[in-house]
Specification:
The chain is α/β, with parallel strands linked by helices. The chain has 2 domains: 117 residues, Rossmann fold (3-Layer(aba) Sandwich); 95 residues, Arc Repressor Mutant, subunit A, CATH 1.10.10.10. It is built from 8 helices and 12 strands. Helix 2 runs parallel beside helix 3 and helix 6 crosses helix 8. The chain is elongated and about 60 Å long.
Length: 226
């Protein structure tokens, strides 16, 4: 899953980004209002975290502008402003949750997971394709009841494929969703990670779930072709 963090305090953004990366999230960081709005309007995010006191454009205005184009992405406000009037103002502007600084990372993570469970649409915590099962809450993956150990990027890639089962995803789409905005590598990295996933998910099973659509990209579905 991919998250946008709009935060001008470098220490705070670094602390949050490192923690979320350890929890298998891809995180883009914007240091001011205008760049945050630009990223929000350019890329697909599963969640946006937004500080209020931002240079260039206040967070509440960024939120209002985001909502004119995207009414569904969950937005979590992170701010030192704890007045009831500030909270009401931002909830009315379209915020989904509000966390006052300073906060413990554990609380932030709980809030994020709660918002992602709600999501823009109803999301099940468990995704299944044939006998392959992925649990978003525990981040465990099993096939035919046997647990599969994955790296953070392998997990993120598999979740994206399974969340879009039977849909063909291009390499560019996969990179934009699984890797963060700072990634400047080549699309061949997707092929490498798909190969790793196949070794762990499909190896030893008669049914091969991860399929290549030549010249286009990858999909996950029941079938015999690879």
């Amino acid at each position: 899953m991919r998250i946008l963090l709009v935060e001008d305090e470098a220490k705070v953004s670094s602390f949050i980004a490192r923690g979320l990366a350890a929890e298998r999230f891809a995180v883009d960081v914007a240091p001011d209002g205008p760049s945050g709005l630009d990223l929000a309007n350019t890329y697909h995010y599963d969640l946006i975290m937004l500080d209020l006191m931002l240079p260039g454009m206040e967070g509440t205005e960024v939120l209002r502008r985001i909502r004119t184009k995207n009414s569904t992405v969950p937005v979590l406000i992170l701010t030192a402003k704890d007045a009831v009037a500030d909270k009401i103002n931002n909830f009315e502007a379209g915020a989904d949750d509000y966390l006052t600084k300073p906060f413990a990372f554990a609380e932030l993570l709980v809030r994020i997971k709660a918002l992602l469970r709600r999501g823009p649409v109803t999301r099940s915590s468990t995704v299944r394709v044939e006998d392959l099962e992925l649990d978003r809450l525990s981040q465990q993956v099993k096939r035919a009841g046997k647990r599969i150990e994955l790296t953070s990027k392998e997990y993120a890639l598999l979740e994206y494929l399974m969340s879009n089962a039977s849909r063909v995803l291009s390499r560019t789409m996969i990179i934009e969703h699984v890797w963060d905005q700072s990634f400047d590598g080549i699309t061949n990295i997707v092929d490498v990670y798909v190969r790793h996933l196949r070794d762990k998910v499909d190896d030893g099973h008669e049914r091969k779930l991860i399929r290549t659509v030549r010249g286009v990209g990858y999909t996950i579905s029941s079938g015999e072709e690879s």
